[in-house]
Amino acid sequence: MQVEVKNVAGQTVGKVELRDDIFGIEPNGPVMHQALVRQLANRRLGTHKTKSRGEVARTKAKWYRQKGTGRARHGSRNAPIFVGGGVAHGPRPRKYTQKMPRKMRRLALRSALSVKAAEERIIVLDDIEFETPKTRAMVDTLRNLNVDSSAVILLPDRNENVERSASNLPDVKTLRAHYLNVRDLLKYDYVILPTEALTVVEEILG
Prior knowledge:
Blueprint: E1 2-6, E2 12-17, H1 20-23, H2 29-43, H3 102-118, E3 122-125, H4 135-144, E4 151-155, H5 160-166, E5 172-176, H6 182-187, E6 190-194, H7 195-205
Parallel strand pairs: 1-3, 3-6, 4-5, 4-6
Antiparallel strand pairs: 1-2
């Protein structure tokens, strides 16, 4: 699959061949879904906790006498039915992490990239570099590339000027190519790939 290579001015400066085994496979929807669920689950801290009736700081003395009051018998105000008592069956600390074989994780990434390629939502740049961090420069670049919605920009390495130029744009995200993930591929409409970042992606998924 051949796509045009553009510069930051939106001009075509060449062509590049996208590998069919990465950008041209039949997308596997269930694997992409599983990878997305795994990624979201692994973000959860699992630190939620409520106190049981044995952990709340209340008196252990019997509330009132057993008989003769006409009320129901109770032995403790720590019971879950009382305000200030413990919580029955509440959340406890736990791990939400899920495991997924490496081959399936890579298949999910290749599937997501193939979806973007089929929709012509992958834009390859010869390079992206700004002399100083400037939001206006990033806005102009996206306009030149006809990006009219959200986009993720993959970078081969740290690029402070580009990262800071995009930081004020809510629909634009910069991401190191090594950290490519299914969530960002599905969340953002366009994938902007400098040629060096494309090389990194092909090395990882090749």
